[in-house]
Structures are given as C-alpha cells and as structure tokens.
Amino acid sequence: VANLLIGTWLELALLAMLERHPRYQNPLWSVKPKRTDDTDFGEMDLVCVDQHTASLRYLSCKSVLDRPPLEHLEAVGDRAHRVGGSHAASPRVLFRAVDAGQEHTIKRYAKRLRMDAAIGAQRIIEEFHYRPQP
User: Fold this and answer.
1) What angle do CA 130, 116, 75 make, to 5 degrees?
2) Distance separating alpha carbons of residues 6 and 107, to the nearest angstrom
3) Is the per-residue pLDDT at 24 higher than 80?
4) Helical H segments across the chain, by residue range
5) Across the strands, what pairs with 95?
6) pLDDT digits (tens, 9 = 90+) for 75-128
7) What are phi and psi of 56, to 5 degrees?
8) DSSP label at residue 90
9) Which residue from 21, 25, 61, 99 puts its CA 20 to 30 A from 54's CA?
C-alpha cells in the first residue's frame, strides 16, 4: 500500500493514458527481464512501442526523486539502450519536481543526455492524454 501511495499511482495513471493513445502500442507496466547479468537492473516502469519513432520507448516515473537527478537520468538512459538497443527512442522521464530549482536541474541534465522530461501533472497530461479531434 505504501508503494502505491508513494509512486505507483503515477505509473498506473500513465499506463491508463498510454492504453488509450494511438501513438503508443502494447504498453507494459513493471517490466522485469527474465535474464540479466546485472542483479542491480531492477524493473522498468513502463515500456511501449512509439509509433512516431517506430521504436521501443521506455518511460521512467518518479513521484519522489530519491537520488541525484544526474545519477537517475544516466541509469535510465543506460537501461533503455541495453533493452532497446541503439534504435531505442530516447527515454522519457516523468517527475513531480519538489521545487523550481529541482525542475530546472532535471531539465538541464535531461537535455544534456538527449532525453525528454515531462515534469508536473500539466505537462504529463499534455504529452500523454489523448484527445480525439472532433
């Protein structure tokens, strides 16, 4: 229950949006590779096929950032390329920033690492909530 209150809610909300969005196909939640040589690999929050880039897209959700932003972003990038290969789409990271300073830091590092960052509820909704055109 504690995990749901801390961060799983963000992953499940995003999963629900991906399942309704035509750009993203076959979204999977909490993906763990069956075989990995790295016991520290862990699970991937969300993985799907991005129709715009015709590639695998890994999405990392963090409602609370429990380590330095650069360290987290580098780990996300490494994981995305290990799973999706050189043709994987740039990882998309989603955060709820603590303050404007942390948001600026995350955006700066994400840009440097060629990643997309959606920070805050409004930005996440703008990017992932599908609204069919009338």
Assistant:
1) 125
2) 22
3) yes
4) 2-3, 9-20, 69-84, 100-112, 121-128
5) 62, 119
6) 888 888 888 887 787 778 777 777 888 889 989 999 999 888 888 888 888 888
7) -70, 135
8) P
9) 61
Paired tokens of 124:
């996440």
Comparing CA positions, the residue from 11, 31, 29, 27 lying closest to residue 19 is 27
Question: Which pLDDT band, with edges at 50, 70 and 90, does 38 fall under?
Answer: low
pLDDT in tens, 57-72: 889 888 777 788 899 8
Which residues are bridge partners to 57 per DSSP? 48
| The two structure tokens encoding residue 53 | 């880039």
Do residues 117 and 110 lie in contact, with contact meaning Cβ atoms separated by under 8 Å?
yes
* 9 Cβ contact partners less than 8 Å away, ≥ 6 residues apart: 63
3-state DSSP percent of the chain in helix, strand and coil, to 5 = 45, 25, 35
Q: pTM here?
A: 0.83
